[in-house]
Amino acid sequence: MATPTPQNIIDKATGISTTRRGFIKNLSMAGAGLVVGLPLTACASNPLPNNNLSALQPNAVLQITSDNQINFYLPRSEMGQGTYTGLTTIVAEELDVDPARIHVLHAGKHEDYINPEFQFQATGGSNSLRIHFLPLRHLAANARQVIRQAAAQQLNLSLADIQTDNGNIIANGKIMPYGDFADHANSLPFPEDAPLTDKEQFKYIGKNTHTLDGLQKSTGTAQFGIDIDFEGLHRAALKRCPVIGGTVKSFDDSEAKTMPGVKLIVEIYNGVAVIAEHYYQAKNALPKLKIQWNLPDTLSAFSSDSTATDNGKGLFKTALDSDQATNAFEQGDGIEALQNADTIVSAEYWAPYLAHSTMEPMNCTARLTGDTLELWVGTQTPQLAAYAAAYYADVPKDNVIVHSTFLGGGFGRRSESDFVAEAAAIAKASGLPIQLCWSREDDMQNDRYRPASMAKFTIGINKQGVIDSWIVKRAGPQLMPYVIDNLVDGLMPSILPNPMVDWLSKTGYGLYGSLLVDHSSVEGLYEDYDVPHKSSDHVSVDPGLPLGAWRSVGHSFSGFFKESMIDEVAAQLNQDAVAFRLKHLNNNPKLANVLRVAADKAGWHKPLPAGHYHGVAVHESFSSFVSQIAEVSVNNNQLIIHRVTCVIDCGLAVNPGIVEAQMESGIIYGLSAALSGEITLKNGQVQQSNFHDYPALRMHETPAIDVVIIDSDEAPTGVGEPGLPPIAAAVANGIFAATGKRLRSLPLKLEA
Amino acid sequence: MINFELNGQPVQVAADSDTPLLWVIRDHLKLKGSKFGCGMGLCGACSMLVDGESTRTCILPIAAVQGRSITTIEGIGNKNLLSTLQAAWIDASVPQCGYCQSGQLISATALLSKNSNPSDSDIDAGMSGNICRCGTYPNIKKAIKQAAKNMRQDNNSTQAVAYFDPVAAREEVQ
User: Fold this and answer.
1) In chain B, which residue's Cα lies nearest the Cα of A702?
2) Chain A residues whose beta carbon lies within 8 Å of the beta carbon of residue B127
3) CA B48: distance to chain centroid?
4) Do B99 and A690 touch (CB under 8 A)?
């Protein structure tokens, strides 16, 4: 079947040609060397602002100064997934310079850095290499070309006599740095059609060079948002309603005010902030605040352990069993085809809410000077962060400057701007430059969570033992209403009055609550296998806990659901789990291939040590294809995962070491969720608070992981997220092989 | 006033005696390499060597380090003089987001200072107090083994750097 393009969150799949050259601009800047801008969108008609660049506020991605500094303004955030090295390597290849010689800077907020698939400045959807691979190569190739042209003219030679090597012009037996020609290059028309380097000639792409940020990150010198410090900066801690969304009714700060170091206490839209000289002083004073809250109605009524039919899992089950579904996908005769089935296999699955728990708790530094607001923050969405901050600090959007930093983990959490809004509101209310730092407890209890989900599959099998109909229905809350709320606040024109923006947000919420299906609610549930008749339905049911994109989004639960289900069908028919999948992957040759390679590598058909069993899963997400085989044993209800074999086809691996590390990363992050990840609520209040009750996998719990990368000439596809979706099912299917127990709920619990 | 040795240099700090060492180092002494992760001693992002032991400093009151020797990531090595472990870390491309890595390096330094040839289970035991949400564990293990090998082969390799200038460190961080 056709490969679906990854759905972007505002549902405007662009299909723009990444080879388009018309949007490469030459930004002249006298005396400052060659500066080329690459608006990463297709909005060629939109003239670039700030033609008079200065070193203080660059708006281009690449800059070569006359003193031979090569600057690359990293348009996508670095949160561990490897853009810092990956995108720089792409530029380096075509510019013909060692990537380690390029000075990489985090791009601030600017329209030049818009992600063309999202139409705003965002890092996510595992698309950074995929969308930038060709445009950045063209940009760098053209930049190298114009430097060669300048050198030819300056040296009075023909272009053919001008060679390059590692940032130098080689001509007449002399070696001269690019910078010597940067000023003259800047006066020439910028080329549009310099040829790209052939794969066989690649010096840097596809090679296993070490990551470019490793030095900073191994010496404690990489700067994260929390590390920002300057004279006069105060620290803030915020007490929020125990139920997210509640507001302050009244508060008494008489005791908190007397605590050491406390400078000021201010109320903002969602809580009361203590501002002190040092963070721990603000944190220590927080419990002394006495606050009466207005609790949000819907969420306060929800308790995960309720056995009622309209609460806890019962709320989801009631929705799943109702006939209120909206169809999201249909193929062939859909559900009607079930009548012709020889055998029907049906099962229901559950996945809980999850927190991101990045290692760096949310934080943001804000300084308001007049009506200019500066932010220092590690964010996946600098533009939305700025707009949210503008709203809460009541300054014009254009007056917000974002100083981006490394992100101490993202996983989707830092695509939200709630913590930025808080920082802006506190800076506004206090009149002080502040750094808002969340505690781990704040972080775990005020996340934007992976939506809990329940799904029911009904699979019809024909007399030949082949799946004929694939019917799946998912019940749960949808991400889009929460995302749209941010987008509308952020992207609506500034001239709209705030109440209208609020109204639009709520309207968007209402539509998604009832009529529309957000693709992330059903993605991954039905696509991968060849089945003539398919139907995917959705029922929206929302306890009111705020949601966000969590590494691999819908695939984070659909990978488990779908791959457990196909395993159940294979087991029911007494078919080999690999062979049965392959039988239904004729139209998905890449997925079939990664499965075959994984089975071979893991020794699927070979005997295992006594008591060891294999479980397999495959899943396509973010245009990449992944197969994982887990080798497990279960003794006295103790699960050990000995080894995971992972095979990925992600097109050309720009840095194979990063691809391997991202597979390990996705597996380990996914195992934390599969084995223990669960956010539960009591009267709307998140019950988990820190790593003791929301554990993360530790080294001694981590299996051996073997990664195979399929050799490919195709353009790169996603790696940050696709390693995650199969792992829970691979383990659960291994547990079934070991024990005969089919675990249909996450996290996987062996004791019934 | 609390007196202790920080990265080989005597320092004196005026802070409430129950202030966690982590915040004294980050907020008062402005060394930002050690990170805040959980505030409960559960994740290891704040790890520092206290008399050579990898210690969770987000829960260690400053009063408890009177007269003791503290080494932070800044004292293990620097960009110009990497420790053997740091060099192995960079070669193995260990860091992903990087936030937990100072703590990981501190625990690995403590491990190798006591055991120059650690087995897999020695490494697991020495590193189990440090969480990495990016899942860099496989590469951490590789880097520790490589560093151990390098140290066994070359006794001159740098294990720690004694010289420390708080002013320069502060400028570098800012």
Assistant:
1) B137
2) 698-700
3) 5
4) no
Using alpha carbons only, give the angle A568, A574, A578 rounded to the nearest 5 degrees.
70
Position A166 in a domain: yes
Residue A376 belongs to some domain of the structure: yes
pLDDT, tens digit (0-9, with 9 covering 90-100), for A616-626:
999 999 999 99
State both tokens at A395: 């300054």
Tell me what percent of the residues of chain A surpass a pLDDT of 90: 81
Q: Are residues A629 and A550 in the same domain?
A: yes
B120-127 and B137-153 helices, crossing angle to 10° = 120
Domains by residue range for chain B, with CATH: 2-77 (3.10.20.30), 84-153 (1.10.150.120)
Tokens of residue A42, six digits? 């297709």
Closest listed residue to residue A25, CA positions, set A50, A57, A54, A55? A50
Looking at the structure, do residues A605 and A645 belong to the same domain, yes or no?
A: yes
CA distances to A23, A104, A479, A501 from A486, in Å: 29, 29, 11, 10
Q: How many helices (H) and strands (E) does chain B have?
A: 7, 5
| Number of compact structural domains in chain A | 4
Output the pLDDT for position A38.
47
Does residue A454 contact residue A475 with C-beta atoms inside 8 Å? yes
Residue span of the structural domain in which A382 resides: 362-437
Which helix (DSSP H) or strand (DSSP E) does residue A542 occupy?
A: none
Whether residue A563 sits in one domain with residue A604? yes
Residue A63 tokens read as 């800059």
- Distance of alpha carbon A486 from alpha carbon A506, whole angstroms: 11
Taking only residues 194 to 213 of chain A, the set having a beta carbon closer than 8 angstroms to any beta carbon of chain B reads 210-211, 213
Tokens of A126: 């595992």
Q: What is the pLDDT of residues A158-175, one digit of tens each?
A: 999 999 999 999 999 999
Residues of chain B found within 8 Å of residue A230, distances taken between Cβ atoms? 174
Q: Residue A661: count other Cβ atoms within 10 Å of its Cβ.
A: 28
Position of tokens 């070696």? A175
Do B135 and A260 make contact, defined as CB atoms within 8 angstroms? no
Would the CB atoms of B86 and A235 count as touching at under 8 Å? Answer: no
Q: Domain of A706: which CATH number?
A: 3.30.365.10
Q: Is residue A45 part of a domain?
A: yes
Q: Which helix (H) or strand (E) holds A559?
A: helix A555-572
Residues A287, A207: one domain?
Answer: no
Residue A424 host element (H or E): helix A418-430
